[in-house]
């Protein structure tokens, strides 16, 4: 199958400045279902990733306890207390363009219920972490974007992680085509597999990203990019590229081991600036 | 009608350093009624906008839950728990010069009650977001400043937003004169319409501002400027100008899409410095 | 009476680097009784002022609600829930060298009770804001440092603020000698009056300090300086000097009106560095 | 006995860049049992020290109240509410490599219970502050690392602190060999004593570290280094070295007295960068 490394050139030719007359509605409202009482930070990291990547408006569905933790750090977001439960009862907010679900979610049952309702919408879906498992995805109008690391992909496929790592292209592509989903198989040289059979490999990032939380940041970034960009492939490829490029910029002046997921978001605007046409 | 673009020259000639012997009482105390349990951040953003713009003292009336979220980020403010309800019962704090109401308010009934009491005072009022609706403003001594975006202005006037956008000057001016209020119709090239028939157009700002929360920041800035400046027209025009100029400065080194409302406040002192006489 | 302006030279000759073999015990533990549910930030600002000024250890006595607000911003401090009440019942923590009381305190009765017990100790006391009122101070071993602005000094003395402002030296000195207390009468050209009849005038600071919260920062700084320095006069004079000097440094690149009390603390280490011998 | 000063050369030759193909599992998950309702910040400081030093994943076991304080500042961590109590009942989380216990712990009984269970595991243990007392450590597979300051070492040994200070090498070494533990006797020229009889002296750090909280930061750093490095001696020596070196870098532009423990963590990645091979 055809595959390509997503290069600086690819980014430059697909990443554009925004329309000067835009308003927040132009860039789509996203819903983030993330965070639980013992993993509240995942929602913060994903939310920050989304806001720093240019989402128009963001609603974070999480518990009141978690909202209280997040809101001082992410005042630009709105909160829906117990948003996961609400969606699980069919109460999907109106006016949104995409939903990311999974970072820091601990309750598999509630997560499943919410996903069932989300599947019946036309929303683009980014599915990560606690929302990833062995499951069949229906044909639907909105995108399904899955963002497993090898351990999660093993859980989804039943294939041992070490086998997956030996055949990252093949496994990712097979799953993408079977499930009609975009598979973003993370780790060094992240692989993006599309249902149309194309494969993209991301060259950016470093071992500083090997720390809890960096995946949550990526999930939020993907939510913003699919909410606000029209062309899907460059949108997701650029999100993954910028995530790694931000870590690479940071590493030029800092020991990679000290990188935090928050730093990745923090430097995104600076990194993206150098690619803006 | 006469209109003008508010230029760098206008700012320079109307924006002055403070009186060296001033104390905090010199600059007026402001009251901010904002924030609710699912939109706490609006109050934080507006409060930060006010403090960074030079308000003397700030009291934020919001729930205890929201106060707990804000106070660690805005230790310079005081809090009045359930301040909206208190004002709605006629308990308007003494010694204040202006009140901003609306950002992040979710309860229309309580907001209306508070506004009724505020209308009966001589306070300058900045009315935004959740406090904007179809309503008649009485003749009063204090200013009424309305800060709708086109969607909110549509709700206030019954005119479709697309029509408003085609005739921003006319609609803003008509409303300003009818209601004896200053209308700040936001969006690219924000229009400021005054009851005396004059119109100001703001040239600053960029599409990075097209994100949830940036309007809240402006509301806080306006609260500070009308509390601490004597000459109303330059006060509000400068507030709007600096809001956009801060976004423009930020955009010189960052991709605009990554701009957060907090960044706007953060850079205000630096931006204002270059205009200070 | 003899008075002097506290000059850069005075600071340089009295401000020293720390002893290389010091440990945290060397610099004294301070107790800060400050903050209430609607004025939590005062405690944060004072606490930050103390820690950035070199206190060895800091315990903040405040409500559990306020502690929860502060601790994420001031993790270096310890907290005593309901510390004001505890001291009011005679439970003064052991091992401390000085106590600051007043910023953000709302309950006059409890504050009085605590002060009564504190007066019976040998601790240095910094008394500010909510703890300042008409009162007689007993002869005692520890210092009594009072930090009123003209309005508070008027409340303490019964003299109208406008009269005080016309005779700042005389009023401050008379009170200092009557009450055997150090009076720091704040505002432009802050006056420090000592019981021995000497007067110091501070030349630093600017109108950016004319905003809620800056006095709280100074209170914390004074707590640190009297806890860790032996020579009292230079200790308090340097604290006041650095407070203003930090505002002056900040103002070189920022419009003064945008200064927040937090910024004052933030830049203290940089400012103090240039005076360290 | 043989002792050596840990030099810049030692650091350079033992501190390496990470393996490019690493994932978060490569660097080990750490458990931090720290923080109590009146000393919540200790857990924050230790957690930040661990994350900035390159731990793969971090779980902080602390109360729900403390978790709520920490999570907005340390979103990269996971939380286990009442983790100390859980471990005390034998519920030690699976999949972890090391545990640090002590900073900000107030309940000696619960701490002891937890330690008893931890002793029966193969985990590396870093024991500090509230978890340090007179105690006998069993022979075990995992490391025992004790990090007392002289006052704590006095409590552990019954020897007066002033005597300890006169014979730091001897007392540290005797205890290390008796108890088969690594003793890190803190203070200027921190001494590291190993059960094999070797002694390391750390040359970095300054009196700015003489402030509450800096020890907590070190504890977190040690947790990260023993979780992610294979060679124990350089791991702990480098952690202590970087802790002081960060303070030294900071002091080049700031008055040492203004140093906060948070600043130490903040600058770690920059400091470590200059030693990375
Ligand atoms: N060694 C590495 N090199 C490049 N990227 C990495 C590396 N380790 C982890 N990452 C990235 O960091 C993120 C980790 O996500 P997660 O495993 O969900 O926390 C993914 O985007 C990975 O691709
Ligand atoms: N494309 C744009 N160019 C300039 N300013 C904008 C643009 N979009 C939004 N803004 C400003 O951002 C703020 C948005 O406020 P709100 O709609 O209440 O969130 C207003 O001050 C708008 O004028
Ligand atoms: N115009 C000014 N020039 C210099 N210092 C000022 C000025 N206004 C206020 N300050 C200082 O700011 C602080 C205000 O304290 P407070 O009134 O308690 O909030 C005091 O340290 C004052 O001396
Ligand atoms: N005067 C000093 N010079 C160098 N390091 C110091 C000094 N005072 C304290 N430290 C370090 O700061 C930390 C204090 O830890 P603790 O006593 O637990 O708060 C330890 O790492 C000490 O070695
Ligand atoms: Mg993940
Ligand atoms: Mg708005
Ligand atoms: Mg004051
Ligand atoms: Mg310690």
Q: Your description of this structure?
A:
The structure is a homotetramer of 277-residue chains. Chain A has helices at 8-14, 41-52, 64-70, 83-88, 108-119, 150-157, 161-166, 168-179, 214-228, 232-251, 261-273; strands spanning 3-5, 29-33, 57-62, 78-81, 96-101, 124-127, 144-146, 182-185, 191-193, 199-201. Chain A contains eleven helices and ten strands. Chain A has one domain (3-273): Ribokinase (UDP-N-acetylmuramoyl-L-alanine:D-glutamate ligase), CATH 3.40.1190.20. Chain A has a ten-stranded mixed β-sheet, with helices on both faces. Chain A is 43% helix and 15% strand. With 277 residues, chain A is an alpha/beta fold. The longest helix of chain A has 20 residues, at 232-251. In chain A, helix 2 packs parallel to helix 9, helix 2 packs parallel to helix 11 (261-273) and helix 9 (214-228) packs parallel to helix 11 (261-273). The structure holds adenosine monophosphate (4 copies) and magnesium ion (MG) (4 copies). One magnesium ion binds at residues 129, 149, 215 of chain A. Chains A, B, C, D: (6S)-NADPHX binds at residues 104, 149, 216. Chains A, B, C, D: Residues 7-275 form the YjeF C-terminal domain. Chains A, B, C, D: Homotetramer.
């Amino acid at each position: 199958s055809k595959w390509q490394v997503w290069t600086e050139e690819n980014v430059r030719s697909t990443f554009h400045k925004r329309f000067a007359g835009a308003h927040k509605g132009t860039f789509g409202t996203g819903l983030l279902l993330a965070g639980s009482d013992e993993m509240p930070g995942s929602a913060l990291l994903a939310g920050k990733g989304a806001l720093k990547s240019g989402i128009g408006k963001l609603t974070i569905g999480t518990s009141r306890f978690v909202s209280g933790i997040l809101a001082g750090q992410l005042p630009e977001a709105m909160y829906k207390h117990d948003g996961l439960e609400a969606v699980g009862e069919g109460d999907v907010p109106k006016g949104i363009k995409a939903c990311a679900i999974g970072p820091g979610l601990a309750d598999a049952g509630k997560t499943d219920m919410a996903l069932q309702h989300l599947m019946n919408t036309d929303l683009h879906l980014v599915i990560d972490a606690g929302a990833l498992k062995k499951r069949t995805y229906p044909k639907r109008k909105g995108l399904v974007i899955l963002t497993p690391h090898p351990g999660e992909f093993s859980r989804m496929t039943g294939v041992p992680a070490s086998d997956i790592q030996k055949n990252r292209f093949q496994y990712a592509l097979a799953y993408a085509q079977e499930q009609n989903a975009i598979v973003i198989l993370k780790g060094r040289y992240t692989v993006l597999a599309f249902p149309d059979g194309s494969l993209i490999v991301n060259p950016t990032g470093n071992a500083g990203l090997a720390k809890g939380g960096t995946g949550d940041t990526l999930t939020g970034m993907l939510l913003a990019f699919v909410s606000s960009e029209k062309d899907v492939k460059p949108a997701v490829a650029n999100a993954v590229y910028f995530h790694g490029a931000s870590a690479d910029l940071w590493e030029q002046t800092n020991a990679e081991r000290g990188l935090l997921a928050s730093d990745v978001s923090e430097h995104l605007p600076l990194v993206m600036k150098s690619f803006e046409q």
